[in-house]
Write a structure and sequence with these properties.
alpha+beta; H-NOX domain; 4-stranded antiparallel beta sheet; 7 helices; 16% strand; globular; binds protoporphyrin IX containing FE
Amino acid sequence: MYGIVNKAIEELVKENFGSEIWDKVKTKSGVKVEFFLSNEAYDDSITYQLANAASSVLGVELKEVMILFGEWWILHTCKEKYGQMMSAGGNNLRAFILNLPKFHDRAYLMYPKLAPPEFKTDEIDEQTLLLHYFSKREGLQEFVRGLIQGLSKFFNEPVAIELIESRLDNQDHEIYKISWV
Ligand code: HEM
């Protein structure tokens, strides 16, 4: 994944837990890259190694790290660095989610080697949407939950998020049920 993703993990750890903890995470991960460059594509394994090391150094489950990282990505990386893209995505949570299938199209201009996720949506009723998530990458189910939670906080619209289908249960993709409460 592009370096911006690894940099965001670094920022999340440094700002919440301090530089010394980040140094421990980096050492534990075995990742030898000294500085991540936002616009350079790195092997996906680096991102997973950093997330696993953060889980072990912080003593929290990997899925908690993934959720935290999803929220951080929206509330810090996207909000602070891509404010215009976020505004163009919609001015409420429902509109934003319905636009997600096209969201990464704009990111290609900055990141031409992007391998983005694929999203589809189903409108069930005024209180409920289904978000379908397709990816060639594994293990990001809770990251996506964190992204949705981050968007819910970004728009200040509380929602319940339920993962109703998953590749972990032999389905071919993930389906999140999002309900306005
Ligand atoms: C505001 C700006 C955003 C930018 C610039 C951006 C850019 C990126 C980049 C660079 C990657 C790494 C993929 C790669 O390097 O091949 C990525 C991955 C991903 N993005 Fe975004 N993104 C943004 C917002 C969002 C939002 C709002 C969502 C959904 C709620 C989202 C969902 C994901 C997911 C799930 C992945 C993991 C890739 C996978 O599942 O295969 N992103 N994005």
